[in-house]
Design a protein that fits this description.
The chain is mostly helical. Helices cover 65% and strands 0% of the residues.
C-alpha cells in the first residue's frame, strides 16, 4: 500500500521522479549508518544524485513526502526513515 501511494506521489509531483523516494531513503540511511556522519566535500563524489547525493537534501525531500502522504502511509514511511536514527 505504501509503495503504491509513493509511486502515485512521484508521478504527480514534478519535483519527484520514479524512484526518488527510494533513493532519498537510501542516501539518508547510509548517512545515518555512518558512525561519523560524514558529508562529502564538494570535490568528492561524482555529482550524480543517485550515487553521491546530499543526505540532508534527501531528508528534506522525505519530510515533504511525509507531509504529502495520508496519515497512515506517512507513519509507515516515518518508521522506515527513523529505523536507524
Amino acid at each position: 500500500m505504501l509503495a503504491a501511494r509513493i509511486s502515485r506521489l512521484e508521478r504527480s509531483r514534478n519535483y519527484l521522479g520514479p524512484g526518488a523516494v527510494r533513493t532519498a531513503l537510501r542516501l539518508w540511511r547510509e548517512f545515518i549508518a555512518d558512525p561519523y556522519r560524514r558529508l562529502r566535500v564538494d570535490s568528492e563524489g561524482c555529482g550524480v544524485w543517485e550515487c553521491c547525493g546530499d543526505p540532508w537534501q534527501a531528508r528534506e525531500m522525505l519530510e515533504g513526502v511525509l507531509l504529502s502522504l495520508p496519515r497512515r502511509s506517512a507513519a509507515e514511511l516515518r518508521r522506515h526513515i527513523d529505523d536507524e536514527w
